[in-house]
């Protein structure tokens, strides 16, 4: 068995990232498993079986990992490559094998200063290299990486649900519409401009109760507070709707009770999910629940998820892009 260190955007208050960590731990089992996290208590609560966390590259090297798995959420970004590449090179020199796993890859061409000869050599020697979607392959090719990755197609969709919270909170009988909205400025502008279209889409679900699907309450970004996004959306578009599980809009409850698997258990009990958050769409697709993507058309994050998982989309699912000027 192998001592493994996992690198990703962990501890920031995004259950989708910890979901990716759970999948990576299944894909790379080991004798001991440690992960980078900015909030270890959060990550350790969310991810059973994790032995501990480290705060930086120096602490990672002190663990003497035999294997490093670089991935987890939208981690294929210039800032992450630049921050971790020197540490990956040192770990490789100590004998660790390096894997780039299930990466969400951002646009890279604006910042390739980190991709020097040493980084190119490490990438060429990777023990494995996967990205989650077609666009990730294109961006890797555009950036001139010395090898191309395989596509993983969002394997975190197959993490099993935990129904314990759904059993406690959700009523049996009423139809349930899940809502997941990110309160970013571009989304707020889209919803204001395209309010008529959004109401047309919602008309189909007039007899549904609302389940707030909150997967992110970010530690340092109010623009990624899904609880605020959900509350604003309900106020503006569904003020008369019944909220089936109001506890999900209580911050103390959310921080104490939600985990990636419990969130999937909630999503799996829905009749339909309307979401801007891609990992909630992935939960729905993995659970066979109809999903409607709602997102700013200028942002391809959700759209590329639907394209990558097209072969698994439940009937009636679709992705709706919104415009704003």
TrEMBL record:
<keyword id="KW-0808">Transferase</keyword>
<dbReference type="GO" id="GO:0016740">
    <property type="term" value="F:transferase activity"/>
</dbReference>
<protein>
    <submittedName>
        <fullName>Polysaccharide pyruvyl transferase family protein</fullName>
    </submittedName>
</protein>
